[in-house]
Design brief:
CATH class of the largest domain: Alpha Beta
Radius of gyration: 23 Å
Largest sheet: 8 strands, antiparallel
Number of helices: 14
Structural class: alpha/beta
Low-confidence stretches: none
Helix content: 25-40%
Shape: globular
CATH architecture of the largest domain: 3-Layer(bba) Sandwich
Mean pLDDT: 96
Distance between the termini: 23 Å
CATH superfamily of the largest domain: FAD/NAD(P)-binding domain
Number of strands: 25
Strand content: 15-25%
Length: 535
């Protein structure tokens, strides 16, 4: 039986960081296991390639949610990365830390070491910021952060319109208070996607003490029962040939499989809610009712406006000549529309004055389509997508069977609370206010979805259910804390099981108010610190 000091399950963003940090000591042996494949697909590197990786079974697990009442009974696609780098290989590349209030709230819940002042130096440590080191940025890390490499006049005008509507222009986000509008900064290096794999894993894959295995499913964490209670001893895996084997970890097993994968593996291992484990015929190792609960996500309401007197990406892709020109610009200069993330422009504001800090965010796109994977529309349009940053609705992730290869049930439970429905309606109304500002008048914006004829709160709530979709930020399903629903403590150790931690976005007790990839890097950095310190 093969034996390592540490076994890391999941080679997404967090797993890549952990593999880098834990294998730095040549005396420490590390195994990194990924259920997906290598990140060698052409469209991963090209930033606009998200159009061809999301919904593609080569790069995406292509999960679907349960039908959701808040979405008027719809089931939606739930993209999760299926390659080295995980979601950072297919995501929007937006570098967004969240806000001071997010982390200070975590600390107020009793999680020591997780306040904004605690985590800011950790963010900076990983960062390689285009403009150099400063009070808020680092320049010696692996994760490259750069400015956009293409401009759109209508997005400049949208910034002016937002300012007219009370959302001021700011230089950048990521300084602790994001109120305002600015262009997003992104994880790219000179026009190429800079994923967790590129930043943290590839540079160290030559280390002889680091093994990386792809296309290997973890069936369960193996556990030994002793006088001190249960202890993780390794993993049982199913390889691509269908064979099963056990691998030992002499120190710790670290789950970094994300907010869907980590609770699934815990439940398959007998760690989770007793009724769910019994229902699936799994022997209970440690009853933890919070495993798979507390699912939170940012629901985006994708409003679409037809525009005139300008060209959006819809027009640039309308014929072979436009596509060829974009491809040539990218090949020669690594600039232009092919360097685009889904959204270049963002804005943060309060849905109502009672909010303590900005609680809604816009991702503004110079394009429109029905859903990712579909063709762009034949008319010129923009999509000012608005989301509730601090939803109060909670969902869950539950195994459907005892087989690791069966996709779990994902029930986000969007728009289940009155407050979430009120924020959704307020977000639509505030978007309309921006779109009606004088700065956009020359583009003659016409609301195509949901449609200007919908005016009452009831109509807008129904429209939010029709248009709402994930912005791909699931967190919280193995939450950190000390209450009865907490899964890990503030050093990310699974409660009641020695030698086992969860280190990924699933440990967030509450979702950060912004995109979640950068916080996941920070969580992995802190997790690596705790592992090494406890060793």
């Amino acid at each position: 039986m093969k034996k390592y000091d540490y076994i890391i399950v999941g080679a997404g963003t967090a797993g890549c960081v952990l593999a880098n940090r834990l294998s730095k000591n040549p005396e420490t042996s590390v195994l990194l296991i990924e259920a997906g494949g290598k990140d060698d697909y052409f469209w991963i590197d090209v930033p606009v390639g998200y159009l061809f990786t999301i919904g593609n079974p080569r790069t995406d697990w292509c999960f679907s949610t349960e039908p959701t009442a808040g979405l008027n009974g719809r089931s939606i696609g739930y993209a999760r990365g299926k390659v080295l780098g995980g979601c950072s290989s297919i995501n929007a590349m937006i570098y967004m830390r969240g806000q001071r209030s997010d982390y200070d709230h975590w600390a107020a819940l009793g999680n020591r070491g997780w306040s904004w002042d605690d985590v800011l130096p950790v963010f900076k440590r990983s960062e390689d910021y285009q403009h150099g080191a400063s009070e808020f940025h680092g320049a010696n890390g692996e994760l490259r952060v750069e400015e956009r490499r293409v401009n759109w006049p209508i997005l400049d005008a949208w910034r002016d319109a937002a300012e007219e509507s009370g959302i001021p222009k700011i230089d950048e986000f990521n300084r602790g208070d994001n109120f305002g509008n600015a262009y997003f900064q992104m994880n790219q290096r000179r026009g190429v996607r800079w994923s967790g794999s590129k930043a943290f894993l590839r540079p160290v894959m030559h280390r002889p003490n680091l093994d990386v295995r792809v296309n290997v499913h973890v069936e369960r964490v193996t556990v030994m029962h002793g006088d001190g209670g249960p202890r993780a001893t390794g993993v049982q895996v199913l390889d691509s040939a269908g064979g099963s084997e056990q691998i030992q970890a002499s120190r710790e097993v670290l789950l970094a499989a994300g907010s869907i994968g980590s609770p699934q593996i815990l439940q398959l291992s007998g760690i989770g809610p007793e009724p769910l484990l019994q229902q699936n015929g799994i022997q209970i190792v440690r009853a933890l009712p919070g495993v798979g609960e507390n699912l939170q996500d940012h629901l985006q309401i994708r409003m679409i406006y037809k525009v005139n007197n300008t060209k959006t990406l819809n027009a640039r892709t309308r014929n072979i000549f436009g596509k060829a020109a974009m491809a040539l610009e990218y090949l020669l200069f690594k600039t232009g529309p092919l360097t685009m993330p889904p959204s270049q422009l963002g804005a943060f504001a309060k849905s109502d004055p009672s909010q303590l800090s900005a609680n809604i965010e816009w991702h503004v796109q110079p394009l429109s389509l029905d859903k990712f994977g579909d063709d762009l529309h034949k008319f010129d349009a923009i999509t000012p997508s608005v989301c509730n940053l601090r939803p109060s609705s909670r969902g869950c992730v539950h195994i459907r069977s005892s087989l690791a290869t069966d996709a779990p049930s994902i029930a986000p439970n969007y728009l289940a609370t009155d407050s979430d429905r009120q924020v959704a309606v307020a977000g639509v109304r505030k978007t309309r206010e921006v779109m009606q500002a004088k700065a956009l008048a020359r583009f003659e914006p016409e609301e195509w979805k949901p449609g200007a004829s919908l005016v009452t709160d009831e109509q807008l709530m129904a429209a939010a259910g029709d248009l709402g979709t994930t912005i791909f930020h699931p967190v919280g399903t193995c939450k950190m804390g000390s209450d009865e629903m907490a899964v890990v403590d503030d050093r990310l150790r699974v409660r009641g099981v020695q030698g086992l931690r969860v280190i990924d976005a699933s440990i967030m007790p509450t979702i950060t108010s912004g995109n979640t990839n950068a916080p996941t890097v920070m969580i992995a950095e802190k997790g690596a610190e705790y592992v090494l310190a406890d060793a």
